Model the fold of this input.
Amino acid sequence: MSKINKNSVKSQPTKKKEKLEEKFAYRSVIISAIFGGLFLIISILLNGEIITLFPSDNPFLLALDITIRVLVILIFDILIIVSLGNYKELTGKPVDFKIIGLLFFLSLIQAFKDSLVFSFTLVGLLVIVLYLYLVQES
Amino acid sequence: MTQIFLSSIFLIINGYGDPIEIKVGFGAAPVIDGIIDDATGEWEQANKQNINLYPDITIPENGLEIDLWVIQEGVNLCILVQFDLQDHDSSEYDNEFIGILIADEDSNSDFTDVKIVQYSNISENTFQYLDYHINDTEYEVDIISNGAGAANLEENQITYEFSIPVKETEDQFQDVYLNYIRNYDFKIVFGKTAFYPDGIMISNIVSIYLEFKPGSPDIPIDELIMIISTIVIFSTIGALYIFYIYRITQLKKEIKRIRS
Done:
């Protein structure tokens, strides 16, 4: 008869797995937050109109400028959601709609200077929120 | 026209089609009568430029040298054009005119508004001020005439004076609505026959930056609100982001606390 407790044999790999997951989640919180910060800086520069990417009336360049500015905000939003999601998971709390709403507002308000950027960002953020809702539901 | 060709020998090149940039300051109001009254210091505070008008702006040759003075007073932009021509009181110049074509900001020199002082008899100093707008390429008289213009010939030297309202035009559809702290392109044109635009012989473009009224803030209130809003919004987001980073640094401690 074996002297080793069966339960302790089973729990060791699970504990290891949990530790690995925790480590991964912690790294994800930090890396996503850092990249989110980088995109926030780019957004401040572009959407705060501190720098202009294409000082031209060319419609193609204008469209490209708007696209970049919208994408920067949306990527910021996604990265911070990922970071926050993992943060909450590590603390054992769920990401509630208050936080999602606050992040939605903080992302959207970055586009307040340009109505076109604002409109496209609003659509993009609504798509992200809808996607998160559907993923959570499934 | 011979004299215009001769003066090209001494021309001062002011660019190859690029507008000459002028930043105007405020000063005392000149009387728009075609006379510079030195006793009262009229036009003393004006920004004074010496430019050439060319048959083709992109080819700076065969130019007529003119003095261009610009000053803002109250709600008006005042422009003075002065030059010499030989036998200036001869019948050749009876229908001489100086016109100022104005382009809306950011319109890439699409001139739509025209102010002209048109002589009908230069030896008798008979002229009239005309306010036109350009419809396609046609010069059409404005329903409401805004601004003022006058001219005066003294020997061979002629002086044209214009006063154009800034932010005060009664005709926003046919006039270019001039506003402060913005650049506008002005095309100075000269001709000897009262036909527009066919009578225009020589021209040049200047870009004039209109200063804000003295005593008022340097930045208009709407732009000031926008700047403050930008600072507040992005500072708040930045502060919240820094707070979140601080919370991340405390995360390991919090996990330990939860586990214990």
About this structure: Chain A touches chain B at residues 22, 26, 29-30, 33, 36-37, 40, 44, 48-49, 57, 80, 83-84, 87, 90-92, 106, 109-110, 112-113 (CB under 8 Å). Chain A has a mean pLDDT of 86.
